[in-house]
Structure formats: structure tokens, C-alpha cells
Amino acid sequence: MRRAVLLVVHTGRQHNLRTAEKVAGQLIDAGLLVRVLDEEAPEIEAHCFSEVVTADTEAADGTELVFALGGDGTILRAAELARMAGVPVFGVNLGRVGFLAGADSDDLDDAVGAVVRGVYHVEERMTIDVTAWLDGEVLARTWALNEASVEKSSRERILDVVVEVDEHPVSAFGCDGVLCSTPTGSTAYAFSAGGPVVWPEVQALVVLPSNAHALFARPLVVARDSLVALEVDQHGHEAVLCCDGQRHFDLPPGVRIEVTAGGTPVRLVRLYDTPFTDRLVRKFELPVQGWRGPSAE
Questions:
Q1: Cβ pair 174, 213 in contact under 8 A
Q2: CATH code of the domain covering residue 142
Q3: Which residues are responsible for catalysis (predicted)?
Q4: Average pLDDT estimate for 159-172
Q5: pLDDT-based confidence at 173, cuts 50/70/90?
Q6: Is residue 182 located within the same domain as residue 252?
Q7: Residues 121 and 132 occupy one common structural domain
Q8: Among 29, 56, 61, 72, which one carries the catalytic annotation?
Q9: Can you spell out the DSSP letters for 110-126?
Q10: Is position 72 annotated as part of the catalytic site?
Q11: Taking residues 133-149, what's their average pLDDT?
Q12: 138 and 61 co-located in one domain
């Protein structure tokens, strides 16, 4: 059976398109079948792909991996397709921070070579499953790799919520929203909102209020097997559930959102087996001057 790769591209930039065509050509020359999404195919030269598929649950079926060219948003989009097919996603950063990427643009040729040879590192990343309930009925059932956010639907309003952990209430407050993040997502939206950085090996969930009107509104780090629930005031306002910036759901007052560790992880490809600490320092350009290293025995 011929080896196949699904190529997912941020098509909004000409540089990305030219890069995608270069990558596709290298993969095809190496004997691989290159598959692209129907919504992206018109932007890519026809000789650069072997087949076109719909961006649905079967888009990555039968492939070895999903190769994503772009920033974290593109990689998150690719991760949804890869997760459904049970294959890894290999992101090459053509954006800014690109924390989810397994390689940077300078390493593009090496990344393609690794795919051709089938030699690369794969990390399993924890996900979360999210369910919204109202009066015993499911309104939405979804998942996230980075985070699920429950936010107010209108800028001028306050969202009144109660945070619950393992069927016990923790705190009630008015806020702009609440984030439930994975360790992977701790360097994304949650980081910008003032949450802690959690190493990927730590199996935990982060609960982070956003602009809460309360004395106690600190980030919470709870166990992987905890059940986190957010209850929106039934006499309050509508809310919006957003997962990874990709999947959005309008929610009515009185809704209950439950978040648990996901049953299906996302597999991320790394070109090099670089420690997370080194990636953190490099991506955020953290100052490490004066570091002397471990003491010699």
C-alpha cells in the first residue's frame, strides 16, 4: 500500500503556499501520496498533490500523519483531523511562537526528510472532553487539546458562574470567563491570562478565572481524574463555549459545563527530542544569563 500524508496549510500567505508546494514536491518525489483538503486545494498548484479530500472525520484515514504548515491555529486544525484518524500531526512553524510545532521553518528540509524516512519522535498529549448540559439534556459535546473557555457573550455584561471540582463547589463570582486548560494549553491562551506553565508530563487540569470580581480568583491546578464543572447563573446571561479557538457553541443561562480528561490523546511529532524546558526558553526568549549549571560531584 502506498504511503500517504495529509497536508494542511495556512493558505492566507503566499509564502506558505510556496512552502507547501515545495514540501509536496519533495514528498511526491520520494514516492509518497500527498492528500490535501478541498478548501485549500484551489490555492495550491494541482501537480503538488495526489488527491483531494473533504475536511471531515475521514480526511486523514489511511495516512501516516498530518503535516501542518503554519502557526498554532493551523496545527490545532490539523490535530482535529489527525486525532479522529489516530495518526500523529507534524507541525512546521511558519507563524510566530508556534509552541505546538515539531520543527521550525529553518528545519523544513530535515522535517520532510524525517517523514520520508519515517524517523521522528512522537509525544502523546492529554486532551479534555467537554459536555454542556441543561435540564438533563446535552447541548454540546466536544473536546480540546489546549483549552476550553466559557465566556460572556456580550462585552458589556458579566458572566456569573460557580466553579465546582469533584462535585464540590469551590467559588462563585462574576467574571469575563473561565478557562479549563491542559498542560499543553498552559503556554497558550491560559498563559496570556496569567496561568501557570505546566510541563507536558504533568497530568493535571488548570482552571483559570478571567477578570473575576472576587477576592479568591486564583488559578487552580487539579488532578487529571478530577471532574471540573462550571455552572452559569440561571438568572444571568448567555455564554459562549470555545474549544481551541476552533469550535464555538452558544449557551443559554443555567447551563452546566463539565470538563474531564479526554479519552483520546493527540499525538504530536517532534523532529528532535528536545526537553520542554529548552523549548520554553527558546520560544519565549527567556533570559538565562548567569546560569552555572548543576554542581559537579
A1: yes
A2: 2.60.200.30
A3: 72 (proton acceptor)
A4: 96
A5: very high
A6: yes
A7: no
A8: 72
A9: HHHHHHHHT--EEEEE-
A10: yes
A11: 97
A12: no
Whether 292 is covered by a domain: the verdict is no
Total count of domains within the chain = 2
H or E element at residue 221: strand 220-223
DSSP per residue, 142-191: EEESSEEEEEESSTT--EEEEEEETTEEEEEEEESEEEEE-TGGGGTHHH
Cβ burial, residue 296 (10 Å; 0-12/13-18/19+): exposed
Query: Measured between alpha carbons, how far is 2 from 32 in angstroms, rounded to an integer?
Result: 7
C-alpha cell at 268: 504530536
**Site of grid cell 504533568:** 202
Q: Which of 198, 197, 193 is nearest to 175 (CA)?
A: 193
Whole-number Å distance between alpha carbons of 48 and 69 = 15
pLDDT in tens, 208-250: 999 998 888 899 999 999 999 999 999 999 999 999 999 999 9
Range of the domain at 110: 4-125+266-283
The closest of 46, 40, 42, 92 to 66, measured between CA atoms, is 92
Cell triple for 137: 439534556
Give me the mean pLDDT over the 191-206 stretch.
95
Which residue, 203, 211, 207, is CA-closest to 195?
A: 207
Q: Is 134 helix (H, G, I), strand (E, B) or coil?
A: strand
Instruction: Note the pTM of the prediction, 2 decimals.
Output: 0.92
Is residue 1 pLDDT above 80, yes or no? Answer: no
pLDDT at 11 over 80: yes
Binding residue positions: 72-73, 77, 146-147, 157, 176, 187-192, 246
* Cα angle 205-130-39, degrees, rounded to a multiple of 5: 110
Rounded Cα distance, 253 and 18, in Å: 47
Q: Do the Cβ atoms of 41 and 130 come closer than 8 Å?
A: no
Residues tagged in the binding site annotation for NAD(+)? 72-73, 77, 146-147, 157, 176, 187-192, 246
